[in-house]
């Protein structure tokens, strides 16, 4: 709908201007947008690939660290002394017990020396009650080993058949205290003969050992987390987030279901580029968070420059397009405005020809067209003027003989019945009426003069009819300031008297002449209570037949055609009649003071 309106009603200048801008803005905008988007996607892909590579390296380091932890666990798990301590009764105050602890301290010292990059502790718990805190830790009271059987990690370790399992949940039942951010490598020692459990060998590793693996690889504003298989954070640069769960976050399923990859998601109120990699030995996930704004900071600067350049190009294109559009549209607008003047009737318009292009040729044709129209209108005006005068004379020639005959005949009979003064007034009215009707003045006369002719005519008829005819005038005062063409009411009143009232047998004859304003028009009504007529019969006769009865009825047609000829098709007369009930003739003319006002309607 908007497009149709633009095509049909928008100016040529706007069409040219908008078309030019569209041809510039759309290609440049699409090119810039696509280029920037491709650049952003390329940078995002490169950064993601780099992050994946970094996470892969960190995963390898983590696997090697876990191998070291397994090596530490093996020293104690495979030690015959540890197995002996788990299976024999011991006396904490005996020399043998002291030698065992010294031996374990030496093993732990060797392990710490060999794997000094890892912060760990070794925990030994025998089913016989033997406990070894490790790493100089004070001995703490822990739960009996027999109470571990309801723990999930213990059942998993028993089911592991000596394989190390990785526990990321707190184990205060094993350590005696909650060590906070740590994870554990746990194994169950068994009797060789029966396979029944004898004790627990656990290595507790501090979270800082994991953090050291990736902290040096972090870029600006980048964060890395390690989560276990259940989505719980076990290592992060933000210590307050450790042990929180990612499982409820909407993007976690992408991390859970795939070994590695990257995607964009909302995190921490910002759009983040999230990359992840699986640690093979534990099925833990390394997750990297990089704010998209940081990744695209350079391209965003470029985008700002591109937008500024694009705005400059648009302004320059607008200026040049506007200049060209005006050069094309101003002559067309000038031509359009002068067409409006021509539409209002001003044919004196002429336009200068300033170019030899299509617009110049169109302007020259426009001037020639106006000259030809002036010639044709002048010819038409002269022809119509002659036609109006001919019709007026024809109408007068129709009316005057018949009217004179009837009036003189009436005066002849009045010589017997009326006083000389009455006959004199009738003759005076007749003279005035004849003088007004046959005068050579302009056909446009004041409505007051037209009504004066009507009054003189009806005075003669009232004298002629006597008391049998009643005449009533209902005329608004404001009508008298306007003008009309002459002889539009008298022929219609004459028809009403001779073909309506005089044919009425008995009863009072009544004639009403009304005049009133209706918006910008003037309406006259001539109403009689005569015999009426059949309008269909009158129209059929008017179409082809000519008889004596139709001579005066043709006055309707003559008046109607003169009104339409002078004022247009919206004006003229209309007749309402019913046989035996009377006739009403409505005359509609425009409220004007001079001929020029007719052209503006």
Automatic annotation (TrEMBL):
InterPro entries xrefs: Bact_2-comp_sensor_kinase, dCache_1, HAMP_dom, HATPase_C_sf, HATPase_dom, Sig_transdc_His_kin_internal
Pfam families membership: dCache_1, HAMP, HATPase_c, His_kinase
All residue ranges annotated as the HAMP domain in the record: 326-378
Compartments reported by the entry: Cell membrane
Chief location of this protein within or outside the cell: membrane
One annotated GO molecular function: kinase activity
Keyword Chaperone among record annotations: no
Entries under SUPFAM superfamilies matching the protein: ATPase domain of HSP90 chaperone/DNA topoisomerase II/histidine kinase (SSF55874), HAMP domain-like (SSF158472)
Native organism taxonomy: Bacteria, Bacillati, Bacillota, Bacilli, Bacillales
Topology with respect to the bilayer: Multi-pass membrane protein
Keywords of this entry: Cell membrane, Coiled coil, Kinase, Membrane, Phosphoprotein, Transferase, Transmembrane, Transmembrane helix
UniProt protein name: Sensor histidine kinase YesM
Gene3D superfamilies with a match to the protein in the record: HAMP domain in histidine kinase, Histidine kinase-like ATPase, C-terminal domain, PAS domain
Ranges annotated as spanning the membrane: 16-36, 305-325
Coiled-coil zones: 359-393
